TrEMBL record:
It comes from Streptacidiphilus alkalitolerans. The keyword Nucleotide-binding does not apply. Keywords: Transferase. GO terms for molecular function: transferase activity. Residues 13-173 form the MobA-like NTP transferase domain. The keyword Transcription does not apply. CDD domains: GT_2_like_f. This is NTP transferase domain-containing protein. It holds the Pfam family NTP_transf_3. SUPFAM superfamilies: Nucleotide-diphospho-sugar transferases (SSF53448).
């Protein structure tokens, strides 16, 4: 059965939220308190306000705690028991869980609070205009979110090892990649260190 979003030809959103935040020492990244609520709720709000209507979320570290402690209504949850092996395993499981009729996936990360609804909207517009492989760019430098057309999912999954995510796919198909400049409406930072978190949580 084809999903509603797929029927409309809209990409589904795939939020990778499995990280344990070991370098931060504050528990699962998804539950970091940001603007008065769990970081994962902020990420989902950004995706929805940017135009995404069908959301898949990959949980890993503290999955039960995250599912119980955050508002994830309306999302399809995918659990990654191998989350500690790196982001690649979450991307693989997430892509495998997507509905077969979906034309593309907009892959976003829970630890990029600077991504804005405007950036998400630009990525969706790029898809509407024919892009099959695209990445948000910040002053010309590739970042997140990333749009992956369904025809590239298998290749993306094969190259998703360790923390590489979709890097192998995007590198191999650089000549097909559309860079969508978002540096004027979003910030590329990801939260991997206590110093980075201090900048965003202060």
């Amino acid at each position: 059965m084809t999903s509603t979003a797929a029927t409309r030809g809209a990409p589904v959103a795939l939020l990778l939220a499995a990280g344990g935040g070991r370098r931060l020492g504050l528990g699962p990244k998804a539950l970091l308190p940001y603007r008065g609520r769990p970081l994962i709720e902020h990420a989902l709000t950004v995706l929805r306000e940017g135009g995404c209507t069908e959301l898949f979320v990959v949980l890993g570290a503290g999955a039960d705690e995250v599912a119980a402690g955050a508002g994830l209504d309306g999302c399809t949850l995918v659990r990654n028991p191998g989350w500690a092996s790196g982001m690649g395993s979450s991307l693989r499981l997430g892509l495998e869980a997507l509905p077969p009729g979906a034309p593309a996936a907009l892959v976003s990360l829970v630890d990029t609070p600077g991504v804005s609804p405007a950036a998400v909207a630009r990525m969706l517009t790029a898809h509407q205009q024919g892009a099959r492989l695209a990445a948000a760019a910040y002053r010309g430098r590739r970042g997140h979110p990333v749009l992956i057309g369904a025809e590239h999912w298998a290749e993306a999954a094969r190259g998703a090892v360790g923390d590489a995510g979709a890097r192998a796919l995007l590198t191999a198909r650089a000549d097909e990649l559309t860079l969508v400049e978002c540096g004027d409406v979003a910030v590329a930072d990801d939260i991997d260190t206590p110093e980075a978190w201090a900048r965003w949580s202060g």
